[in-house]
Amino acid sequence: MVTNVTNLGRSGLSDWMMQRVTAVMLGAYFLMMMGFFVCHPQLTYEEWRSFMGNSAVRIASLISFLAIGGHAWVGLWTISTDYFKPTGIRFLFQAACGLALVVYFVWGVQILWGF
Amino acid sequence: MVLTVEDKRPVNLDLTTIKLPLPGFASILHRVSGFAIFLALPILLWVLDQSLMSEESFGELQNVLSGFLVKFVLFAILAGLIFHLIAGIKHLLMDAGIGETLEGARRGAGITLVLSGLLILIAGAWLWLPM
Ligand code: HEM
């Protein structure tokens, strides 16, 4: 079995599965949010705030932010291995993407619990 | 791959002379849209932050988002998300063994492009037409 230290899980197969599972979670979250917006054309701050502050929605948002991290990491990793053959450049690209994803996640958590 | 002098196979790296089949076209768009969403995430997070911070920032955001150029950026992000979602669902169906033939792959790519095109049009109407 081929393993790679920059894999997210222990193998390519687990990364592949992770990308699929997170894809389904992100799809469900996207549809839920679009459904909410379509159902509230004249959205007020109070409505929006109470929706996003609802515990179930907060948990769904948190899970989705985590899922974005995992999904995009595997996706960006795949892209990096396709286009950047020199190890140094590939590593730099992966490091930049990984850092961005961690920052996004922490920022997202701050937003979710900051209102 | 190491090309040696004896290697007589033709190499064609002139992208303008390569005609991508429909599934290939849908595939590269899926990759481009995924990367674009990644780049757009700070914008989405900023919008989320402004929308929740306070009643005032919410109102200000509504103003900002109604500007034509900003609305266009929002539309582009939405279009990327819609295409990535539809092409992603097609990808998952094919992973499950559905439509994994040459004909199936062509039809799947066609359906993906038409369906996401339609949904993107609807999203544009939803953003721009007064409701
Ligand atoms: C919300 C943020 C999302 C981001 C930032 C994102 C980003 C990406 C990236 C960068 C890739 C790599 C593309 C490639 O390897 O060519 C990818 C692949 C993929 N995405 Fe997403 N994606 C998101 C949401 C979704 C959703 C909602 C779905 C729903 C079905 C989805 C389904 C997939 C699938 C199935 C793949 C694998 C493609 C492959 O193996 O070639 N993604 N995504």
How would you explain this protein's 3D organization?
The complex is a heterodimer of chains A (115) and B (131). Chain A has 115 residues and is an all-alpha fold. Chain A contains four helices and no strands. Chain A has one domain (12-38, 55-114): Fumarate reductase/succinate dehydrogenase, transmembrane subunit (3 helical TM bundles of succinate and fumarate reductases). Chain A is elongated, with a radius of gyration of 17 Å. Chain B has four helices and no strands. Chain B has helices at 22-53, 55-65, 68-95, 102-128. Chain B is elongated and about 70 Å long. Classes of the chains: A mainly alpha (115), B mainly alpha (131). At the A-B interface, helix 1, helix 2, helix 3 and helix 4 of A face helix 1, helix 2 and helix 3 of B. The structure holds protoporphyrin IX containing FE. Protoporphyrin IX containing FE sits between chains A (19, 23, 26-27, 30, 68, 71-72, 75-76, 78-79) and B (30-31, 34-35, 37-38, 84-85, 88-89, 91-92).
- Stretches of chain B where pLDDT is under 50 for at least 5 consecutive residues are none
Q: What gyration radius of chain A follows from the Cα positions, in whole Å?
A: 17 Å
CATH class of chain A: Mainly Alpha
Instruction: Give the largest chain-chain interface (CB within 8 Å).
Output: A-B, 24 and 25 residues
Tell me the number of strands of chain B: 0
Associated small molecules? protoporphyrin IX containing FE
Please describe the biggest sheet of chain A, giving its number of strands, its sense, and whether it closes into a barrel: none
Low-confidence residue ranges of chain A = none
Structural class of chain B: mainly alpha
Strand content of chain A: under 5%
* Structural class by sheet pairing and helices of chain A: mainly alpha
Count of the domains of chain A: 1
So, the CATH homologous superfamily of chain A?
Answer: Fumarate reductase/succinate dehydrogenase, transmembrane subunit
Rounded to the nearest angstrom, the distance between the terminal CA atoms of chain B is 57 Å
Q: Any idea what the radius of gyration of chain B is? A: 20 Å
CATH architecture classification name of chain A: Up-down Bundle
Taking all residues together, what is the mean pLDDT of chain B? Answer: 93
How would you classify the quaternary structure? Answer: heterodimer
Global morphology of chain B: elongated
- CATH fold-type name of chain A: 3 helical TM bundles of succinate and fumarate reductases
